[in-house]
Amino acid sequence: MHQRLPDWIKRGIIDTEKTRFVRQILKKHNLNTVCDSARCPNKGECYAKNTATFMILGKNCTRNCQFCSVDTNIPELVNLEEPYLVAKAIKELELKYAVITSVTRDDLPDGGAEYFANTIREIKKLTPEVKIEVLTPDFQGNKLAIDKVIQAKPDVFNHNIETIKRLYPIARPQANYEQSLEFLSYIKNKCPELYTKSGLMIGLGETYEEITELLGDLKKYNCDIVTIGQYIQPTRNHLKVEKYYTPQEFENLKHDAIKIGIKFSVSSPLARSSYKAAEVMNT
């Protein structure tokens, strides 16, 4: 039995000159966005604000997380021009804040860290004033890979924890809860002034206590920014939604996160990893 989508989850279609302009730039440079690949409900709103979350290293992921609509398939050849093309698109869109993510590339020796670093450098070359947030996979815990990204000096380093520990075998069978926490901790220890960030989705069957326990773990591992959003089932082949949290419950979780000691929290039904990322950094 599938639950009906509550009214507070529904988004109207935004299609303006600005959203078309963003799509044209992406198409011209043959770039992918997580907005499209992950069917983000905020795509119209973000495109209308001249922003998008760029997804490098192709459209095909080497992992098969049960909540995600990004394709799992044989990874594509890496486009060596992509870092420059992303930087060019950012310049043309006149972005002030750019978010760069990728599919997971377990087939690459460093998980694609070099391409994240190159993309940051190319952006800084073309538009040095732009703030850059990276949202990376876990690089299988490879610290040398994490170092490559840190050395390129992003402003925010994001790695999503995604869900509570108990649900990892179901939702993220190829990932490891402790490894993701250690990943965030390593960044902070290596570069204390760099903002660390993580995101989770709720509605997969976790309890409220398990969510606050996870927030406590993120605080313990020195995570600065946390995003909390509602899980929405992408297709009937993905994990089903066990609960739709109300806007008030999200507001409560935001206060809980701050009370626990997280510096910044974005918590709402449609919050996603990079949603309102620039606003958080300007508060």
What's this entry about, in short?
This protein is an alpha/beta fold and 283 residues long. It has eleven helices and eight strands.
Mind explaining what this structure looks like?
Helices cover 38% and strands 13% of the residues. The protein has 283 residues and is α/β, with parallel strands linked by helices. The termini are far apart. Strand 2 (53-56), helix 4 and strand 3 (97-102) form a beta-alpha-beta unit. It has one domain: Alpha-Beta Barrel (TIM Barrel), CATH 3.20.20.70. It is globular, with a radius of gyration of 18 Å. Strands 1-2-3-4-5-6-7-8 form an 8-stranded mixed beta sheet. The mean pLDDT is 86. It has 11 helices and 8 strands.
CATH topology: TIM Barrel
Percentage of residues assigned to helices: 25-40%
In DSSP terms (H or I, runs of 4 or more residues), the helix count works out at 11
Report the sheet-strand fraction: 5-15%
Q: For the record, what is the CATH homologous superfamily label?
A: Aldolase class I
Low-confidence stretches: none
Number of strands: 8
